[in-house]
Amino acid sequence: MTYYTFAFYAFAAIILLSAYAVVTSKNVIYSAFSLMLTFFGVAGFYALLGADFIAIVQLIVYVGGILTLMLFGVMLTNKITETEIKTGVFQVLPASIIIGMFSGVLIASISNNRWTVAEKLNNPQNSLVGIGSILMNEYILIFELLGVLLLIALIGAASIARK
Amino acid sequence: MKTPQEIFEILKQKFGESVIGFADNKLLEFAIEIAPLAIAEVGYFLRDDSELLFDNLILLSALDDMTGKKVTEEDGSFRFEGGTLSVIYHIESTSSRHKIVLKVVVPKENAEIESVAYVWNHANWEEREAFDMIGIKFLNHPNMIRILMPYNWDAGYPLRKDYKNPEFYEGMKVPY
Amino acid sequence: MSVLKTEEMILNMGPQHPSTHGVLRLELELDGELIIDVKPHVGYLHRCFEKHCEALTYPQIVPYVDRMDYLAAMYNEFGYAVTVERMLGIQVPERVEYIRVIMGEFQRIASHLVAVGTYGLDIGAFTPFLYCFRDRERILSLFEMTCGARLLYNYIWVGGLSHDLHPDFLRLAKEFLPDFKNTLSELNNLLSYNKIFTERTANVGVLPLDTAINYGVTGPNLRASGLKWDLRKDDPYSIYDKFDFDIPVGQGWYGTVGDCWDRYYLRVLEMEQSVKILEQALVQIPDGNISEAIPKRIKPPEGQIYTRVENPRGELGYFIVSKGGLQPHRVKVHAPSFIHLGLLGELCKGHFVADVIAILGSIDIVLGEVDR
Amino acid sequence: MMIYDFFISIFHNELIAAFLNSIIPVAFIVPFALFAVYLERKVSAHMQDRLGPMRVGAHGWLQSFADILKLLQKEDIVAAKADKKLFNIAPVLTFVGCYAVFAVIPFSSAYIGANLDLGLLYIVAVSGFVVAGILMAGWGSNNKYSLFGAVRSAAQIVSYEIPTTLVIITIIIVTKSLNLYDLSVNQTSNMFNWMIFGGYVEGWHKIALIPFMFIGFIIIYISTLAEVNRTPFDIPEAESELVAGYHTEYSGMKFAMFFLAEYANMFAVSAIVSAIFLGGFQSPFGYLGSTLNLPWLIPIEQFFWFASKGIFFVFVQMWLRWTLPRLRVDQLMAMCWKYLIPIAVVNLLIVALIMVL
């Protein structure tokens, strides 16, 4: 077993265990912190795949941004320390039906797919330059549109928060 | 600037019966005695009248006059039956620079005085202290609870002359 | 859009908290970081001073008054001595009056140094605090040299003093004053005019003059709100009429009149005025016997008296009722800190949590005096 | 030759070499923290006209060791109603976040933990763990002061990351590289090749860049100061209002962990600032090793310069701490959003314009 596969299985274990904890934990705060580990594991996967820029963006956006926002939300909206923040199991039957359908679709698509392994990239280190030039040349319109979309979201959030 | 006598005349004219008279006074101070339930009204007048403008309550002090009949118990401790408590208001005007002393005397058994906390905000805490220490109840006070002693102190009012230390406080022996 | 339901958070500040200046508990009602209400809970240091007084003779009370405002113990004694002397009708020798004024003004400087230094500490500046304490130590050494104690002196007695001055006292005191002026300018450059400091304190906790008077605020806090009211000039006692000094008032230098910066800076200006008084007193002090007016037995006539002096924190008044015995019938103290603390809730509303500290520091309370 | 290659040549095993390579920063951080604690005490003492520690060792130089001994002996208190799991993990997570930053800091031309191309971005990324650790500590302590401190701290770090990142982008425009090692290597030969003097750009661009580089330097220094919660931005642990912020409830070794993380962080941001703007490990004057023709001396000299620059900025942080009062939380946010970010954006645009022309 090479170090690479060892690292892969280690990250996979982190993702699976922490994702399981996210879903099953009764305490929302625990779920949030487990989610941080999941994000970390996913970032590790990206790094193993040579997509270091994606890995780092994953950390910046999800751990630094979204997770912090979630923690803030949980910590500030509850009356602090006096009520336990718990989740429960509700609507078991409808949920299991939907989950069953979805997993059926997923299993079918996975088993019917012909998996191919991509060729190893020559220089996975310099992904940033590639991403930059693609974004700024081929996909410039989409990139700018995304920027506008985010700006609209930002203005909307600010105007809602002001009320 | 007005002398206490002049202010007394003004008050007497305005409030009549409620202004009882010059309390007996010695040493430097001329106290005007006011009826317990009229003090707030007098206070508003003193504060707002354009000639008087007593805007500053310097000090509100309560005391046990020790005028009742002294009854000695078997164990040597004593208490006073009847008697009076009094509250003394030192007020002055920061603009006209005159000052007077008001005095209110109430019987110990039913010690109730109109609060002046809305006239001079300063009286808010001073009245709480007077309640805490001497046990005078101020009517219409915004927050008439103990201030210096514990909120659940039930051994009486410490500055009364016949106050006795409790034997226990919250299960602890006093003095420990 | 529906209104979101929010709940207030109750935060207990104290009794053990680094910046409540003693054992004070503040119950803060918060909406996020904004203050909705502040409820001070006092009494953790309550010793029933007034009850003790009823069981002690008049001279025995002197050491007890030290323990009220322990940062200005000299002035507490000064006020008490003046009160009882007025009851008895004693005239004290001129040298005693001079020594009392010297001690009183040194005490005012020492007390204001603590106020100003700890105020810097509350805002987060540690260094000015130690500069202030360095100079305060020199004043305390002068006191120690005079009466053997650094904090609670039992020095000013009814009718006189416990000791005369140490032979070196005048020389060392005169040496101290120029050094102290340097400290003041250093303090001003380091703290008073610091941009962050003025941002933190200007326009914070504004106390309008009518509110101040209505709440019975006195001393530097009242003067910072703009009223020229100093008992040393307005209700003279001792020999303050012999000295030439000004009464600084708040002018809203960096913001509104009566904000935290004004209250802070007024103390700095008052220290300058104290230096001015000291410079005159240390030169003019006459020789004489300091103990000739001390009565053997103090038994004031029946009656009541209220006398007030300008303590570093405000108007310190003693209301003494005598029934003609050796012990007072009732002693009630007009404690400036107690009154100023009653104002805190009013000042803090609508400010941030951090401002509570700034406001509490600027009104300069001593818990020993609040609880007595 | 990199130290990593040296380890491989000895052990012939990548794993052992990587492990040894990764613990080298520990060998730096721990002595540095001991030294920095001592320095902090002495700096504050001399600024305040007093002597500071004088009893333990000559001039108190052993004071930090005595502190460590004390912290080791302390009872490890966990508050009864604290969330034990989070409470115990939080200091570790915070320290891990700080330590991870050291992976991309070039200590000398012979040592960098991981020569990442995205080094600068990586630093921004891992600081998210510090935020999470602080929030965890605040929540786990079950104390309102801790929570207040944690929320303030997190808000502060997240806000001040924006001007930091903007300045970093400005640098990327000039250098076209995010690699801290390359950045440091390229600022060589003399101090006018340092980024603060326009870097290794040629021609009139270099002159034009200098003022904007200075602005960028000041912005990044202020915002990194805020990110490590030092005065005047120490609001999260403002002792006069929030007691000790998120580490109020911690004692003993867990407290020491936060303490170590704080000092490690102080050095890390100083090192980053000096690596970006002040040539990192480069000497301002040239190397003794090249003059004497002793190539092995150069990396050691470089480490000396790197440590000196880092410690100098740590000293400046201390200097500021013992001089300035503390901002209020809304003033802190106003400073970030109303001043630093707009200035950084304008600075970025101007630099971009200069580089395009």
What is the multimeric organization of the chains shown? Answer: heterotetramer
Radius of gyration of chain D: 21 Å
| Shape estimate of chain D | globular
- How many structural domains are formed by the residues of chain D? 1
Number of helices of chain B: 3
Total strands of chain B: the figure is 11
Strand and helix order of chain D: HHHHEEHHHHHHHHH
Taken as a percent bin, the fraction of beta residues of chain D is: under 5%
Tally of helical runs of chain D: 13
* Shape label of chain B: elongated
Largest protein interface? B-C, 38 and 42 residues
Can you give the helix content of chain D as a percent range?
A: 55-70%
Average pLDDT number of chain D? 82
Tell me about the biggest sheet of chain B? 5 strands, mixed
Number of strands of chain D: 2
Strand content of chain B: 25-35%
The rounded Rg of chain B comes to 18 Å
Characterize the largest beta sheet of chain D: strand count, sense, and whether it forms a barrel.
2 strands, antiparallel
Low-confidence runs of at least 5 consecutive residues of chain D: none
Strand order of the largest sheet of chain B: 1-2-7-6-3
Task: List the main descriptive attributes of the protein structure presented here.
heterotetramer; B: 176 residues; alpha+beta; five-stranded mixed beta sheet; C: 372 residues; Cytochrome-c3 Hydrogenase, chain B; three-stranded antiparallel beta sheet
Question: What order do the helices and strands come in, and which of them pair?
Answer:
The complex is a heterotetramer of chains A (163), B (176), C (372) and D (357).
Chain A: H1 3-24, H2 28-48, H3 52-77, H4 92-112, H5 127-137, H6 140-162
Helix pairs in contact in A: 1-2, 2-3
Chain C: E1 9-13, E2 25-31, E3 34-41, H1 49-53, H2 58-66, H3 73-88, H4 94-123, H5 127-147, E4 156-157, E5 160-161, H6 169-192, H7 195-201, H8 209-214, H9 219-224, H10 231-234, H11 260-284, E6 303-311, E7 314-322, E8 330-334, H12 336-342, H13 344-348, H14 353-363, H15 367-371
Antiparallel strand pairs in C: 1-2, 2-3, 4-5, 6-7, 7-8
Helix pairs in contact in C: 2-3, 3-4, 4-5, 4-11, 4-14, 5-6, 6-11, 11-14
Chain D: H1 3-11, H2 14-47, H3 63-73, H4 84-101, E1 106-108, E2 111-112, H5 119-140, H6 144-175, H7 180-186, H8 204-227, H9 239-242, H10 252-277, H11 288-291, H12 297-321, H13 329-356
Antiparallel strand pairs in D: 1-2
